[in-house]
Structures are given as structure tokens and as C-alpha cells.
Design brief:
Order of helices and strands: HHHEEEHEHHEHEEHHEH
Strand content: 15-25%
Helix content: 40-55%
Strand order of the largest sheet: 1-2-4-3-5-6-7-8
Structural class: alpha/beta
Largest sheet: 8 strands, mixed
Shape: globular
């Protein structure tokens, strides 16, 4: 099992432990990943037995917190595009063009594929002045829309070779650079996509000037010394599983010597930025968005 496969499996098990998936559905999803019933049941039991820090409880919505997702008021529409990928493959994506781009942002989706939420994030970046491209990492299988069952999309992503992800993301950066010539580029990813931001940074020199991975697992033995990007790492206080990889990320960033900052959202959990999900924390999402725009304002333009 690769680290990304392990991450996806544990995410399913923790969703069950948190009451977001019933046992039957959790077993079904783990089965799609290739788990037999005994192994799946053991993973569910192990994750259910884990306890979170009681001081890091998730943040409930209230009238005092933002009522609309951050950046959505100024969001611009996205359009479906295709562009050239590695090995003569055609890649799909969602493109949002800023009127006068200050830079470009590659948006990397969660393990459900290119959803409406991720499209909306690309539109929000464009509304803030950064043309954005969200790459569909299921392009080789007909795109996310070819999967009627989101769990099947997740399973397909778990079977995709890591090198293919990196190749597709680098093709996305190349397309983004072509569309915003002369501008600096950044990358923002969420959950699984946050892990891919770290992998992209660890894969060697790239066009990235900045990156903002959201609660993404840091790769085992990840080396960022070849990356020159300024990195803002975003975590959640209640997300013990991903937060356990934060010290390794911080150490790698320090060794790389590039500008970096880590922010841990208080009283928020994994996937707190996704306003379509059950762990959405409006105040934390709003603060994260403010910090991202400040970071890109400094390091992209």
C-alpha cells in the first residue's frame, strides 16, 4: 500500500469513527480499495479506538461566523477546458480567468475528483485576481463526471500511480503558465490534493513560486531542497492524523531554506474549508482564505 492509498483508507475509517459513514458504507468503500472484510473491519476498529485531543473540538457554525463561503461573493465562472498531458494524453480541467491576473494558481482537488466545490475555489481565486486552473486527475478515465459513485472515483484515484499525478500536475502548471505568461504560479490543494502539493514540491524543480497545501499528509522522507516555492502550510487542530506529519513538513521546509509559515486552525477539523462537507468551519475557512491571499499577494504578485 502506498502512502496515498493508506491515507485514503484511513480517511474512510475516520469518517466512520466520526459518525459520517455507517459501518456498511465504510466497509463498501474500503472494499473498493481492495480491502478484504477482515482487514477493513480491523482498520475501522483501530480508528474508532483512537481518541482526539478533547481541547481541539470542531467549531460549530453560528450567527457570528461568516454566512457565505470565503471569496464566493466575488467568484468568477469557470469553463471546462482540455489540454495536452504526458504520453499524448488529454487532460481535463476547469479554468477561471481573472480580468487582470496578478498570477496563476493550480487548484488540486480532494479524493472525490473535480467537484463543483473545487470549481468554485478556482472561481474564487479568479475573483481575487489570480487566474486558476483546477486539473481533473481522473482525466485518463473519462473525467470525474464519468463516475456516478463518488466512492468509485476515490477508488480509481487510489489506484493511480503517483508518477502519473506528478506528470499531470506539471502539465497543469505548463498550461497555466501558457495562459498567464510572465506571471508567477502557485498551487493550492485540499486533503488528498494537499498531499499532492507536497509531492509536487518534493518532485524536483518546478515553476512554482508559492504553494498553500491544506491539511495534506507530508510524504515519507520528503525532500524539498530542490523546491524554491514559498510555502504556507495549513492544518487543523482536531486533525490529529495529518497533523502528525506536520513536524516532518516543518523540518523539510527549514532545510530547504525557502520562506515558509505554518498555520493551525483552532477548533477546526480535517476538510474545514469545504463548505459542502460536514466538517466545514466558517470562521476557520474565512481566516485561511485571508491568509492565502496575503501569502499569494506577497509571493505571486
Amino acid at each position: 500500500m502506498t502512502p496515498l492509498q493508506r491515507y485514503i483508507a484511513e480517511e474512510i475509517a475516520l469518517d466512520h469513527a466520526d459518525g459520517l459513514l455507517n459501518r456498511r458504507e465504510a466497509l463498501r468503500r474500503l472494499g473498493l480499495l481492495g480491502f478484504g472484510v477482515p482487514a477493513a473491519a480491523a482498520l475501522l476498529a483501530a480508528c474508532t479506538a483512537e481518541s482526539k485531543d478533547p481541547s481541539a473540538t470542531t467549531q460549530p457554525s453560528s450567527a457570528a461566523t461568516p454566512s457565505t463561503p470565503p471569496g464566493s461573493g466575488a467568484a468568477l465562472p469557470t469553463a471546462p477546458i482540455t489540454f495536452a498531458g504526458p504520453d499524448n494524453r488529454e487532460l481535463r480541467g476547469a479554468w477561471a480567468a481573472a480580468a487582470q491576473p496578478r498570477g496563476g494558481v493550480l487548484v488540486i482537488h480532494e479524493n472525490k475528483g473535480l467537484t463543483d466545490h473545487i470549481r468554485s475555489v478556482a472561481g474564487r481565486f479568479a475573483g481575487a485576481g489570480y487566474s486558476a486552473l483546477a486539473v481533473d486527475l481522473l482525466s485518463a478515465k473519462g473525467g470525474t463526471d464519468a463516475f456516478g459513485d463518488p466512492a468509485q472515483a476515490t477508488a480509481e484515484l487510489s489506484r493511480t500511480p503517483q508518477d502519473q499525478f506528478i506528470g499531470d500536475l506539471r502539465a497543469g502548471l505548463a498550461e497555466l503558465g501558457r495562459r498567464v505568461p510572465g506571471k508567477k504560479l502557485g498551487a493550492t490543494g485540499f486533503c488528498f490534493g494537499g498531499g499532492l502539493v507536497w509531492l509536487l514540491l518534493a518532485s524536483g524543480p518546478s515553476a512554482l513560486a508559492a504553494a498553500t497545501p491544506f491539511y495534506g499528509p507530508f510524504p515519507d522522507h520528503g525532500d524539498l531542497t530542490a523546491a524554491k516555492a514559498a510555502v504556507l502550510g495549513i492544518y487543523a487542530a482536531a486533525d490529529a492524523r495529518v497533523d502528525a506529519t506536520r513536524p516532518a513538513a516543518e523540518a523539510a521546509l527549514t532545510r530547504a531554506g525557502a520562506p515558509h509559515e505554518i498555520w493551525v486552525a483552532p477548533k477546526a477539523d480535517h476538510a474545514f474549508f469545504n463548505d459542502t462537507g460536514p466538517r466545514y468551519a466558517p470562521a476557520a475557512a474565512d481566516e485561511a482564505w485571508r491568509r492565502i491571499l496575503d501569502w499569494y499577494g506577497t509571493h505571486l504578485g
